[in-house]
Amino acid sequence: MDTMNLSFQINCQGMSQFIAHWSSKYSYSEEDKYDNNIGKPLTEKSRLELFEWKNGSVISKKKIESINKNYPLSFEGSQKDRYLNHKKTGGAIWNIFYIHCLAPTKWPIYDQHTFRAMKYMQTGQISEIGNTNKQKYESYIKEYIPFIQSFDDIDHRKLDKALFAFGQFLKIANKYA
User: Cα–Cα distance between 126 and 117 in angstroms, integer?
Assistant: First the structure.
């Protein structure tokens, strides 16, 4: 054997093919908890189910207390000033998820996987999300929201699924780099 292929490549002809391919690889437990509740007014039940979906499992009693304290069923103030501010309570990813629940078309879902996918698409390098809330908020506001907005004619939920699955893949692939 003279030649061995020791690397691989996944080719996509444009964003629509990328989204179709990677969104088909998306798998997340209890997806119905998200689908049945997002875009509707929050109730105690729907808020809990959405956070269970985000958590990937049943929520501990301590986390339920935090959800009840930090994430009201409705919020009248500036979502950005309260929930995208590192000086306020709550972790960045959960705060971003909460405002996504309040206004899903305005505030895209954001986490380590969607960040990793975005950075790879922009730079060709695998990068990890910042460690501090301040870094996470800054990258969300300055990088991720404009990145998502650049896909104005694409189903954002399908895009989110594709970015999540691709970001998970990159995390695994990076272990073998």
Answer: 8
**pTM passes above 0.85:** yes
The model's pLDDT over 96-145, given as tens digits with 9 standing for 90+, comes to: 999 999 999 999 999 999 999 999 999 999 999 999 999 999 999 999 99
How many C-alpha atoms does 45 have within 13 Å on its Cβ side? Answer: 3
Q: Give the integer Cα–Cα distance in Å for 67 and 64.
A: 5
Cβ neighbours around 64 below 10 Å, total: 14
- The string of DSSP letters for 117-170 reads HHHHHHHSS-----SSHHHHHHHIIIIIHHHHHT-TTS-HHHHHHHHHHHHHHH
